[in-house]
């Protein structure tokens, strides 16, 4: 019993980064294994437009003058 090593050994893997987890290779592997995969396109992802979409709608709502409150 002199050669026994009773110290605990911890084995762990490095968790995948976001870039690795969202790669096409990882997504295809998850689809093949039957895991639930949700893909969502970010709004204006990869575009160089700052004044498109909700910003125009927000400005239009700010210009709105009609009172929309209910009577109490």
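-> sequence recovered:
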């Amino acid at each position: 019993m002199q050669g026994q090593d009773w110290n605990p050994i911890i084995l762990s893997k490095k968790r995948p980064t976001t870039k690795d987890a969202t790669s096409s290779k990882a997504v295809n592997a998850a689809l093949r294994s039957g895991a639930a995969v949700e893909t969502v396109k970010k709004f204006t992802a990869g575009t160089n437009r700052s004044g498109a979409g909700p910003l125009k709608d927000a400005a239009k709502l700010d210009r709105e003058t009609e009172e929309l409150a209910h009577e109490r």
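The mean pLDDT is 78.
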